[in-house]
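hi!! sorry for the late reply, been swamped w classes. u asked for the two structures so here they r. pasted raw, havent cleaned anything up. first the sequence of the first protein and right below it the tokens
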Amino acid sequence: MPQRSPSPVRPVPAIHPVAQQSTRDESYMESLQILERLHRLLLDLVKDEFERLGRSDLNPVQALLIYNLGAAEVTAGELRTRGMYQGSNVSYNLKKLVDLGYVHHERSEMDRRSVRVRLTPTGQEVRDRVIELFARHAEGLEMSGVLDDPPLERVNLQWRRVERYWAEQIRYIY
């Protein structure tokens, strides 16, 4: 039986740099769309949870504000600078949360223009419900293996890098 010569190894064609950049741009745009959808879904998940609990007085943004405030006592401005609140209408939401009894506010003795806020016991109950909701989701995602490939820690590292880049771009503009 005649011996067959091994088939020649064909080199993998290189991707043209322009095509490679186009693919990367498309991936970035897709990531932005996914990020936006995830944020909307997060708000929907929180809204559904509070509807199930019979708490229709809170909207999901307010519930997340309560969650992010946690045990801290801060000024309204610090809510934004510390990343606890990303929206533009923090004063409206804080006033609403104070009126509903979820947040306590107090004028600073040193600077009467400054108001410090913290959760009331009712606000702490809301925060605990959000913590429980997120814990259930983390457990379900862990059991499904979704958080393993790639490891969530690597994904978070990448998002922190994007966050830093965006923040630098904003500072550069001003």
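now the second protein. again sequence first, tokens right under
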Amino acid sequence: MTRSTDAPSARALLGRDAETAALDRFLATSARTGGACRVVGEPGIGKSALLDHAAARAAADGWQVLRGSGFEYEADLTYAGLHQLMLPAFPTLADLPAPHGGVLSTALGIEAGPPPRRLVVTTALLSWFGLLGRRGPLLLVVDDVQWLDRASALALSRVARRLSGLPVALLTAQRSGSESFLDERTDTLTLGPLDDADAARLLRSRAAPLHPATRRRVILEAGGNPLALVELPRALTSEEERAGDRLPVVLRLTDRLRTMFAARVEALPRPTRHLLLLAALNGRDGAPLVPTLAAAAADLAPAEEQGLVRVERDQRLVFRHPLTRAATVELATPAERRAAHRHLAELATDPSLRAVHRGEAALGYDEDAAAALQEAGRVAVSRGDVVQAVARMVRAAELTAEPRERARRLAEAAYLGANFSGSLDGAHALLEEARRAAPDAVHTLGAAAAAAAHLLNSDGDIDTAHRMLVAALAHADPRSTDPAVEAAVTTLMAVCTFGGRAALWEELDRTVARFSTVLPRALVLGARTFGDPARSTPAMLAELDALVEQIGSDTNPVRILQVGLAGHYVDRLPRAAVERVVDDARRGGAVAAGANGLILLAVDAYHTGRWTEAVALAQECAEWCRENGYPTLEWGALHVSLLVAAARGDRQRLRDAHERAHRWAVPRRAYAVRTFTSGTEALAALASGRHEDAYALLTSVAPPGDFPDHDQLGVWSLLDLVEAAVGTGRVGEARAHVEAATALGLPRVSPRLAFQCRAGRAMTADARTYRAAFEDVVDDPGASAWPFHLARVELAFGDRLRQDRELRRARVRLERAVELFARLDATPWLDRARTSLRSTGRTVRRAAAAPDALTPQEREIARLAASGLTNRQIGSRLCLSPRTVGGHLYRVFPKLGISTRAALRDALTERERERATTSAAPRDDAAYGVS
């Protein structure tokens, strides 16, 4: 016999690390003392893959490997399984003693003769295995034991109990619930389902790209079964199904899965199958069926006895495996399914659920059912389930006979798919279907909104999308309550955002004014607070504050994003609500909505100094956009990453991204992308002290003192322009810019913009007033909310003091700047601050100090506060104002991990203990960045 050479190479099995390790240990032990192990699990769970792994590992280690399998059609053939298993070793029978070789030759059908007794066969097999074992360890692998013929099963069973001392391992696999020929004391490895994370990884590696909602459905209905994860996507026959728009109530099974899971359902009595069908089509809640199931307990009993379902204490029915649910639906005829849906529609108390079942029960066109489904789709949006809404709209269109109405419903579904659910391919297919249904309907407002959303998000065709929307809106009734008006205006605002040109925004302003009475207030406000934040009035901001508060518990992603975008440039983010949208997208919900939410969260994290979080959110958004084909939206995510890269001095990343941005944006006239890359280039120039370059880049958009209409960059880069102007000696221009911002009312827009205006006044103050102006900024406890800008102000203050030879005071400011820049890992800024600090005569300063290290002044203030002194008493003792003392304590508390003065004493005691331990350790001179 030759060793097995066709075993697959051993490879990592996804989610099976523990199981493969257990088999590796089994092989290592069996090579010395022999042994048997069985692998048990449901069909498709990966038993054969685990056997393949063991066989490949054994072959690689020099084992002899013999493999066999039970076959249902050979279950009645005596010793058929043993014959298959040992066939490669038949040439060695001649080496056995005459009685044993003859017995096995007869039993396996090689020679004619009377059937040998079972005990004799067992003895002969052990002799044969012993002979083979002397040539090297032997692995016997038997799959599908549940179909092994009885004679082979009994022979291997007796042998398995007598392998001790032989270098022979018997490894078998069988389905859960089937009879095993091995002793109950045999080692058993039970395979459970893959967890959701491993299931998602397997699905991504083996299936064509799927919309996240479709991927979520596949994972849910596969129930962690690897075979189902591979097979279920193959049953998705259309682009709309893969895009999540036309998914059936229960996913269809392939022939392979149907063979595995349908037989036991098919054998049930007809009344039992009817109950299972109702439960399968009723969804996962099951509440409407509770009375029906309670009244039909006897009919349900056969399914419970077979272990296919279980009834919970609240009388809800649960399928033990999702594929049994799918098999139940597969086995029903179309007429049976429609009848079941009609029954469920009668039982349903929720109007939306009733509409869904009515829609599934309908045969042919049914306008009443279509209208109810359309309304159910809009309710689904309000409840946060845009993916479900698209599916309901599509089904409503299928039931619609009138071509233009059918086209309108398809267009509404396409708009939601393109702008929110993340189904661009599906949206395109739906738009094509709408054109075929009513060629003259392509100019309707709904079709224009859907087509423009698709154009913007896929090709980035700014001008075509703008013209299409403006033309369609021009013919719409300004009093119309058609949802297409809101859809068109929302899309037009997105087009203007990426177009970045005043003329585009002006058309939006006129359109919003015309439809202001029928549009949501968040959308009306957002046209100004997002489109032209510098001109946000106090009345607008007050109304927006109220909307932010109201949206807190809302589940409608459309409304949440409208409020979120309205607050984007004026620092009013409904964080919790936006996080809900993002979390839903992570679970397979509305991906495009989630991507927009990620951008909002990433920008907020950037402004507040949580840069690691900002980059992670931006990268997650970019991955979603690439995976789902949203190249335009990806630039919003990339902008946040580039801001951090600019501040951290990653010049190569900036160069590569900017070249790519200009190649993409210029042909499409997406000038906002180009404008924002100028802002990041300017920030990078400031970081390295190239003030002239920064000034040129920023003033290429608008001159100092000018905030053009719809200039979003000017609000974000207010302090950048001031710093660039001061750094190039243009203090008068910088001062004019701050005055213009103040006159425009930017300090009233948000605390962050108020801080920047005050910082700008400090940077442009004269020699007599700059100290007080700077102290007013840096000692404000609220300033720590924006650590990057605060660090830059501390650096500017320290440099002014250093130039005036006030070295002691300068060190305090520069040490603070070093600390803040170090926390942010803003390397070029940190280098500038360290250089300035060295010039003050500071000789020993840890560059890699812990992010929460206290400055000497903070430590002294904390010590005095811990002793019970008030801020006023501490200020009197240290010659500081009470406000300055409060500012220092505001920064001390998070460093010490506390929130009250009462906890100061214990926190300081613990800190001193840590410092004593650290000082006793050998000093690492390489960690000291200032010599």
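hope this helps!! also noticed smth abt the second:
Residues 1-10, 843-851, 917-931 have pLDDT under 50 and may be disordered.
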